[in-house]
Specification:
With 446 residues, this protein is α/β, with parallel strands linked by helices. Helix content is 44%, strand content 10%. The chain is globular, with a radius of gyration of 23 Å.
């Protein structure tokens, strides 16, 4: 529990007077920011308006997840414009202890995936809390931008008062309990699942703001946690910053996909699609970027389907965006997401997209324009759809151009970061108002 009683700011600051819904439009953009006259909508114009931003996460600074990419892109963008941010992770405190403490999880996992998950969550939060307590003791007013419920709870416990605001980014699907269950690390509906849901039920209504990465993520959370509607919120998709370094232009393969090699990402389906195309007489090549627990299973599937010379597993690459121009289409088979940064990056590179019309993916692009929605339960039908697109270069080129245009109009960091900063500035202003009122009362008494 927090050491402080958290008083949420007036939700009407970010609610529509017409329908009491958060001020967002159908694309996930913040409404009203352009007409706010109190803030310069350029990032440079907001720097003097904002207190220090502390980004808090239980993840390592660099890694394979979309959340890590989001954090690093945001910090890079702000740093290049003269606004430095602090990144606090569990590895920011007691680094000599992180190896033996965190490493025990690997020993636990063969015995009990549930116990391994509990160990991971507990000790990463403990270390993050201690690191945050040390960092926040050095600051007065600030904004802690927490990248998950555990980080938010650690921040609420570590902060020195409500003048240090805690804003939670909702990257997770429905609940982190569902994410762990989807990966078969805990039992759906079991004790750990229920404990994670209860943690979120306790923490989320107490933060000072919520940043949903998609309309779907908002609706999925509110469906089981309606109390979150009382927290000031906005919907802002994950931004993509300008590519560093020259892109690789030479052809690499027909298709590309990016993502952890786990159950939810559903790479098995992609291999089946390539195999179905082969059976129909069309040879396609696929490069897979990512790593994860299913690597050996996927390699075995590739061999059994006779695709050793068609599908390459290229591991994790932090600079994978440089290579996207070497492909003709981006393919995706995940069946559960809150957002998909890889699809946005593919559109930036001018790749048409084929993915299932699940939740937030339907917010990213339009079927028939920037790509196609394919059936995730029918590899043969998906293969036909893919081949039809690739065999019509005119259609593929039109979709590629539309994808790049969609990126610039919806996901460019120059559009989204100012909206995020405007929202964060609003949470800081809400903290300042009670203090100014108290100062006014004190002055009148004196």
């Amino acid at each position: 529990m927090s050491e402080y009683q958290v008083r949420p700011m007036n939700a009407h600051q970010y609610m529509s007077s017409d329908d009491n819904r958060p001020l967002v439009d159908g694309t996930g953009s913040v409404e009203g920011s352009e007409s706010n006259g109190s803030l310069d909508e350029r990032p440079e114009g907001m720097i003097g308006s904002l207190p220090p931003i502390v980004v808090a996460t239980i993840l390592r600074e660099v890694g394979i997840t979309g959340v890590q990419s989001y954090i690093n892109r945001l910090r890079q963008y702000l740093d290049e414009r003269g606004m430095s941010t602090s990144l606090v992770t569990p590895f920011s405190w007691g680094r000599a202890l992180t190896g033996p403490v965190f490493g025990l999880r690997l020993a636990l996992r063969p015995l009990s995936r549930t116990a391994s998950t509990v160990w991971y969550r507990h000790w990463h939060e403990v270390f993050l809390y201690r690191a945050l307590r040390r960092r926040l003791a050095e600051l007065d007013d600030c904004i802690v931008y927490a990248q998950g419920p555990l980080a938010a709870r650690a921040a609420l416990r570590a902060r020195r008062g409500p003048h240090q605001r805690v804003v939670l980014a909702v990257h997770f699907r429905i609940s982190q309990a569902d994410e762990w269950a989807d990966k078969e690390e805990i039992e759906r509906g079991g004790p750990v699942f229920r404990a994670i849901r209860q943690l979120e039920r306790d923490v989320i209504p107490r933060v000072d703001g919520l940043v949903y990465v998609s309309n779907w993520a908002r609706d999925a959370l509110l469906q089981w946690l309606p109390e979150a509607a009382a927290v000031p919120s906005t919907v802002i998709g994950c931004m993509v910053t300008p590519l560093r370094g020259l892109p690789i232009a030479e052809p690499l393969a027909d298709l590309v996909t990016i993502g952890n090699l786990d159950i939810v990402k559903n790479h098995r389906f992609l291999l089946e699609v390539v195999a179905e195309a082969e059976r129909a007489g069309r040879t396609l090549t696929l490069d897979v970027y990512g790593e994860g627990p299913l690597e050996h299973e996927l390699l075995a599937q590739r061999k059994s389907l006779g695709l050793d010379d068609r599908v390459r597993f290229r591991g994790f690459r932090s600079d994978v965006r440089r290579y996207l121009g070497g492909y003709r289409a981006y393919v995706h088979a995940c069946y559960s997401e809150s957002f998909c940064l890889a699809i946005v990056e593919a559109m930036e590179s001018g790749l048409p997209v084929l993915a299932g019309a699940i939740g937030p993916v339907s917010e990213l692009y339009d079927d028939g324009r920037q790509g196609r929605y394919w059936p995730l339960d029918d590899p043969a039908a998906a293969a036909r759809m893919l081949v039809d697109l690739l065999d019509s270069e005119d259609d593929r080129a039109l979709a590629a151009a539309a994808a790049r245009e969609r990126f610039h109009s919806h996901f460019d960091a120059d559009l989204l970061v100012p909206r995020l900063l405007s929202f964060l500035a609003g949470t800081a202003a809400a903290a300042e108002a009670p203090r100014e009122a108290a100062d006014s009362v004190s002055s009148s008494r004196s």
